[in-house]
Write a structure and sequence with these properties.
By secondary structure, the protein is of the alpha/beta class. The chain has 11 helices and 13 strands. It has 2 domains: 138 residues, Rossmann fold, CATH 3.40.50; 142 residues, 3-Layer(aba) Sandwich (Cytidine Deaminase, domain 2), CATH 3.40.140. The protein is 35% helix and 18% strand. Helix 5 runs antiparallel to helix 6, helix 9 runs parallel beside helix 10 and helix 10 runs parallel beside helix 11. The longest helix has 18 residues. The protein is elongated and about 55 Å long.
Length: 295
């Protein structure tokens, strides 16, 4: 899924690129990579989700979800035709939002988008932007160097039991992906312990840690893997699986042996810190092929 520098194919290749910025570290990793490639990133930060301290380091605008209808004008005024949608977001209840008039006009489309899983929602939001003349750019198109490579990051590698668990995890994700749920599964000794739901990866790992604490998980500490891969049929312009330092910390707290993510199918933020944390904790981080043969 990696692309060359010319892959954006935009007549505005030197123009700013708008990054609609939710929570987490990934939006900033994308912004930094875009800047290294010679384009100016402009963050359109979502109130209550994007990190205010980090946003301040970039050209930016803040907006509330209830005032998202003003985004096209903000993007146009900032010279952004290409946009990236990236970062985590907890979908609000529509009845809790107080829409301004520009957003209220989009309400029928927004309401229809909310009736489905995350991929359905994000694709529908993307179509709204495209109808306004903007082009949705995948994070891995804007910053291909952030894609997870194949092979081991750091000093530690999965053993045969870990690789069998990785294979089981990939199979579990293929099975549930058609329902537009979850990009992660935790497997230990060939037993699927948990599949990611709406809680997200951090809370999935916290759930596994709690299950281990209360004795519902009997495998010893240091056995088990969290596996991440895109959903079947996912629009890869949105919400690719990602790994950051917090995921490493969560895997350690959950007592797992390591982390596996589909090579070329996920984004890595702060790779050096990830490697340092994983090496310090003695766990592995590995990029795997979907067709890899596991023991």
């Amino acid at each position: 899924m990696g692309t060359s520098d010319d892959s954006l194919g935009s007549a505005d290749a030197n123009s700013p690129i708008g990054i609609i910025c939710g929570g987490g570290a990934i939006p900033f990793a994308v912004a930094d990579a875009v800047a290294r490639r010679g384009r100016k990133p402009v963050l359109f930060a979502i109130e209550r989700f994007a990190d205010p301290q980090r946003v301040e380091g970039y050209a930016h605008h803040w907006f509330a979800l209830s005032r998202a209808g003003r985004l096209p004008k903000l993007l146009t005024d900032s010279g952004c035709r290409d946009i990236v949608l990236i970062g985590h977001l907890v979908r609000p209840r529509l009845r809790d939002l107080r829409f301004d008039w520009s957003t209220l006009r989009l309400l029928p489309r927004i309401a229809a988008a909310f009736r489905g899983g995350d991929n359905h929602l994000l694709s529908a939001v993307g179509r709204i932007f495209e109808d306004h003349g903007f082009r949705i750019v995948a994070a891995h198109e804007a910053a291909p160097e952030l894609l997870m490579p194949e092979g081991v990051l750091g000093r530690y590698a999965p053993n045969a039991r870990d690789r069998a668990d990785i294979g089981r995890g990939l199979a579990a994700l293929r099975a549930v992906g058609m329902f537009d749920i979850g990009q992660a599964a935790v497997v230990a000794d060939n037993h699927v312990l948990a599949v990611e739901g709406i809680e997200g990866t951090d809370l999935l790992l916290a759930r596994v840690a709690e299950l281990r604490r209360i004795g519902r998980i009997r495998t010893p500490t240091g056995v088990g893997v969290i596996v991440k891969a895109p959903k079947r049929g996912q629009d890869v312009r949105y919400d690719l699986p990602s790994i950051g330092p917090r995921m490493v910390e969560g895997a350690v707290a959950a007592g797992l042996a390591g982390i596996a993510i589909l090579a070329g199918g996920g984004i890595v933020a702060e790779a050096e810190r990830i490697v340092a944390l994983a090496d310090q904790a003695g766990i592995f981080v590995v990029g795997v092929r979907e067709d890899e043969s596991f023991g």
